[in-house]
Amino acid sequence: MKFLDEYRDAEKVKILVDQIQSLNIPPINIMEVCGSQTHTILKYNLEELLPANINLIHGPGCPVCVTPIGMIDKAISLAQKKDVIFTSYGDMLRIPGSKNSLMKVKASGADVRMIYSPLDAIRLAKENPDKKIIFFAIGFETTAPANAASILTAKKTKLTNFFVLSSQVLIPPAVQSLLDSDLIKLNALLAPGHVCTVTGTKWCGEISNHYKIPITVTGFEPVDILEGILISAKQILSNEHDTVNQYKRVVTKDGNLKAQETIYSVFEICHRNWRGLGEIKNSGLRIRNEFSHFDAEKNFEINSVTTNEDERCIAGEILQGLKKPNDCKLFSKDCTPTKPVGAPMVSSEGACAAYFNYRKVNELV
Amino acid sequence: MCLAIPGKVQKIIDEKSSPKMAEVNFDGVIKHVCVDFIPDIKVGEYVMVHVGFALNKVDEKEALNQLKAISTAEDIIRKKMK
Predict the structure, then answer these.
(1) Is A65 in a helix, a strand, or coil?
(2) Which residues of A touch B72 (CB under 8 A)?
(3) Of A34, A118, A249, the CB nearest to B51
(4) SS in 3 state form for A266-317?
């Protein structure tokens, strides 16, 4: 497939690995912020190809993993209401709430449907005027433009049976909160290429300047990630801390201005609680007042549920890069992708699921 | 979650429709994709698609330059090894 196969080419992987190996690198921590990159690193076993001194730390960039348990409980409560068709991206269906998951209530008769695009939810609203369609809008800046566009389309087509449960989060405040933490020392960051496709790279420049840390905006294929690591390592060795765009074929400095405008015409910034990380100021997006008639939280009675996290799960520390998935006592025993305790084991981009699927068996015991 | 896949725009379904939709070919799989965020999109161009929306074009020239740079590094290293 064009623009994918070239970036999975073994020859190019080898040459990048040789270049990284030829550097005299001291022990360094590089965090890949994005869960899709974590997935690629584990799937292609890239850590095995790197010098032992390069420690890759898996960041919190999985919107599924960081959706608070209370929000999952709200989604489940809404999905069980009469005359509701609850729609969600597939990633969210198996995420455990306090007592249930969307998949379990679907099995008990709730009308929960997995959709590919928010426009599918719009189509369902048009086709089912006697039902209330609720769309679970999760995601980072990558997904927020599409989520916002669905509300604008609903407004334009005068839909009165389309509602959105918004649980969207922003990457820059989360990155800053990690860099403010004394718990972990990061020497470089790989910034998420598809978030930057929308946002542009200015925020990366501000962070690399302020925190004196090299940031490489990186794509998602093995060649991209290795080149991102090579660029980071070279910067660390020469004591530089710039933002470099490795993913120029897709990411521009300004990003997609039309997509940004769409996000902020519908949503506004708010404080947001991240599962495992706690509240991060100005890190969420909520629906603006002028669109409140589409806001599921304002138009439905949501039964309050007591949220309980399994205290044995160390998802919070894993999402902050403080621990690796196989440091968890539950990992691959009481917690597996088919019987998950924490969200990072459910989402295919969660670090726990990536370790479970791609690590050698003898490393698990 | 932030997965985006490159595909080739093979047809703009209706220039004036809202949302503006295009047929995008992903290696033989054709999907209808919203192209509202790329007003100047043309047939034949590649786009990165996420949840049914094209987020940006893929710049072919940048991709070629990047791949060429990696291959050039390979040549240099091979010469060193001789």
Answers:
(1) helix
(2) none
(3) A118
(4) HEEEEEEEECCCEEEEEEEEEECHHHHHHEHHHHCCCCCCCCCCCCCCCHHH
Residue A289's Cβ-count burial label (10 Å; 0-12, 13-18, 19+) is: exposed
B contact test, residue of A7, A117, A248, A349 with most B CBs within 10 A: A117
Measure the CA–CA gap between B2 and A365, rounded to whole angstroms: 32
Facing B2 at nearest CB: one of A2, A142, A156: A142
Is A142–B19 a contact, with Cβ atoms under 8 angstroms apart? no
Q: Say which of B36, B52, B59 has its CB closest to residue A249.
A: B59
Q: What is the gyration radius of the CA atoms in chain B, in angstroms?
A: 17
Cis geometry, peptide bond prior to residue B19 (ω within 30 degrees of 0):
yes
Q: Six-digit token pair at A215?
A: 């940031």
Q: Which two tokens stand for residue A171?
A: 């990457």
The answer to whether residues A356 and A336 touch, using CB atoms and an 8 Å cutoff, is: yes
> Do A282 and A271 contact (CB within 8 A), yes or no?
yes
Alpha carbons A221 and A326: distance in angstroms, whole number: 24
d(CA B12, CA B34): 10
CB nearest to A63's CB, from B1, B4, B71: B1
- Is B18 in the A-facing interface, judged by CB distances under 8 Å? yes
Type of residue found at A18: D
Q: Which residues of A touch B18 (CB under 8 A)?
A: 153, 156
Interface test with B, best of A88, A223, A249 (most B CBs within 10 A): A249
CB proximity B81 to A under 8 Å: no
Q: Identify the closest residue of chain B to A119 by CA–CA distance.
A: B52
| A161 close to A131: Cβ distance less than 8 angstroms | yes
pLDDT, tens digit only, all 365 positions of chain A: 899 999 999 999 999 999 999 999 999 999 999 999 999 999 999 999 999 999 999 999 999 999 999 999 999 999 999 999 999 999 899 988 888 999 999 999 999 999 999 999 999 999 999 999 999 999 999 999 999 999 999 999 999 999 999 999 999 999 999 999 888 899 999 999 999 999 999 999 999 999 999 999 999 999 999 999 999 999 999 999 999 999 999 999 999 999 999 999 999 999 999 988 889 999 999 999 999 999 999 999 997 766 777 889 999 899 888 999 999 999 999 999 988 888 899 888 899 999 999 985 545 44
- Does the pTM exceed 0.85? yes
Question: Distance (Å, rounded) from C-alpha A313 to C-alpha A309?
Answer: 8
